[in-house]
Sequence to fold (607 residues):
Amino acid sequence: MTIIATLPVVVPLGGAALCLLARRRLRLQRLVSLAAAAASLVVALVLVVVVDRDGPVAVALGGWPPPLGIALVADRLAALVLAVAATVLFGVLGYAVGQRRGDTAVPHFHAVYQVLAAGVSLALLTGDLFTLFVAFEVMLIASYVLITSRAGSAQVRATLTYVVVGLTASALFLVAVALIYAAAGTVNLADLAGRMREVPDATRRGLGWLLFMVFGIKAAIFPLFFWLPDSYPTAPTPVTAIFAGLFTKVGVYAMIRTQVLLFPGDGPSTVMLVVAGITMVVGVLGAIAQSDIRRILSFHIVSQIGYMVMGLGFFTAAGIAAAVVFLVHQIVVKTVLFLVGGLVEEVSGTGALGKVSGVLHRYPVMALLYLPAALSLAGLPPFSGFVGKLALVQAGFAAGQGPVVAVSLAASVLTLFSMAKIWAGAFWGAPCPGPARRPAVTTLGATAALVVVSLVIAVAAQPLVNLASRAAADLLAVDAYRLTVLGG
Amino acid sequence: MSLVVALCAGALFAAGTYLLLQRLLTRIVIGLGLIAHGANLLLLGSGGRPGAAPIIAEGTAAYSDPLPQALVLTAIVITFGVTALLLALAWRSWALTRSDAVEDDLEDRRIARLGRGEK
Fold:
């Protein structure tokens, strides 16, 4: 049964290969790509059930026993995030297939998209620091192709920033891997967790902050977020949506995994909490200053990352569980918001708030899709954001960190204001003159399906919080993790 | 880690960072290449003292650590691919704008306009 932990990586890679073979036949590519995404989703859901019932699954690739070989480890946290990621990847693929010029705007869209999916799965499942680097590279190279191909003169400048920042972060990641190897003599995470305890305290802290910075660039925390709002809005809608939904969150996931496993602190980390608070505030203020739907939403990505870092910064089981719940909710809601933003742009030709108006009158369905996602982002009950924020606030008070919790609540109010700005600017008012352009039913359907997923998260809040709590408990039980991977 | 390797890596990082902060795209590409080389060198150096080839043989006591070398190979291949992509992108940028310089970004231009008192 352990083979199942490799399938989330193998299935999309196989799909990518088939898509390349069928490169002249778009319909066949779509079929293969959708089948691969659906299969990954099923595998991920089965994995959640199996792992939650029987405990973590570890696979030694190629039969080389860890710590010498590469291990894939599916524990509750990895399986849960993987399932949500697979859901979003499937939904966005449906949107791209349905949209006019959605999957034809980028050459070999389906092959690249599947490689990206494989990279995300590998980053979530790997139990090896260097393989994590490789997984990030696979993900990033696929993203470079998606964001740069067909970039016109307006986009080339922004995509250059994205690629250069990505490369610099990768080089720093490699430096971190090299220094960790020099200090501890292994790159296997489970083995490292044990050996890191023997590394001198100052060295350990230095390495911990270096790795925090590397993932901070990828997750776009303050002050390393500047590249994100410039580059994300320039890509085609499905590409931006998947970047916004997944990429920064995989960075946060890697941050949670490495910090808890390798650099466990004794109590709340003041630096992380300060960084988290500033990230929330700066992100939301940036969003308020913008007047383009995509740019507003991009700044909100930054702001919301702060909440997850805050959950990690508490360094308690409750805090990490809350961060995981928030992460799950964010992946879905952020993707939905970008998809709806793309729909609005498609029917009105622009995303500038001064030019769009009255979408509500002409396309009430879009307003219906936007509203739950926007209210969820702001954290209003009964939507999924409320569940995540409630868990974070409770964990924060339990950890005695009142000030940062207060900052997070203030940022929520500003988020609501900014969501209302999009609502008032784009959805209210007199409809724009000109002929009505109907969005494809498939794109609406895909967006609606993801909205339903976010509502399910809200309805199934208690089981989700319970699962996240078990995942956080697993994560903090470092010795059990080592036993699973390295054997007795 | 040998002092020579460490100093070399440091020099590469310094030169790479200097070039990365320039306005010309070609310099940025070269700078990123140098930084990546520095990282690779550091990874190679992390294996500790050099020794004989890591093949078990009679009469050899000290072997080189093969793992960092395998890691470096992977990293070099990745760097190569990404640098090729970056060069293609730099060429596209030149073809579109007929200039090698990186322009100010959207926000910078907006702030500059506001600073000049234009709307």
Remarks:
- The two ends of chain A are 20 Å apart (CA to CA).
